[in-house]
Amino acid sequence: MSVGRSWQDIKTEAHRHNPELADSERQARARAELDAYVAAHHLEELRKTQVDVAQP
Description:
56 residues, mainly alpha, 2 helices, 75% helix
């Protein structure tokens, strides 16, 4: 069985290969995109529930 790697090691390696990951503007855009995606999913679930309630 292999020994797992620490999250910090993985993050350090990712930043070494992709230094743009540390860009605060990029992080803010990614956070906003994720928030919008989650909000859209919640709205979709609400619409499904509303349709279920509206049907006789």
